[in-house]
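Review form for a predicted model. The reviewer records the input and the model, then writes brief findings.
Reviewer: anonymous (R2)
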Amino acid sequence: MSSPACPPPEPKPAEGRLRRLAVFAALATAVAALVVALLLTGGHRRTHTSTPAAAALPPPWKVRVDVLNGAGDINWTRQVASRVGALGYRLGRVARAGRFDYPRTAVYYEPGGQALAVRLARALGTMTSPLPGGSNPRRLVVIVGPHRGPA
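Model under review:
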């Protein structure tokens, strides 16, 4: 006669509690390490583009931006102007440019305003170009070219 097969022993309730406790301890350790890392770095994310010059730039709301329609599509120009305003810049004029043959959108700057123009151009995904003359480095002009790709 063969003996009847014995069912495997059921896990003890303490084993399940120990597993949960181990998982909780691992999560608590990970959260604590993250908090320590943030405290040690001051909570600031550093990127390769941050420079002392970028830190010295005035905030966007102290920069006036005129947005001009350079391709004939006033709706696209207004969308770009809304985006500039949403970035915190102070909108000036939103109007027609002197002509409608601009091939692409660009941020133009007066002497001394190149760093501000670069910051806005990066946010808009476009290029910069100097304006001839002028004396206000905190004034930028965005001339909107044809709409290409998603908004």
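Findings: The two ends are 81 Å apart (CA to CA).
Further findings: Residues 13-41 form the longest helix (29 residues).
Recommendation: see findings above.
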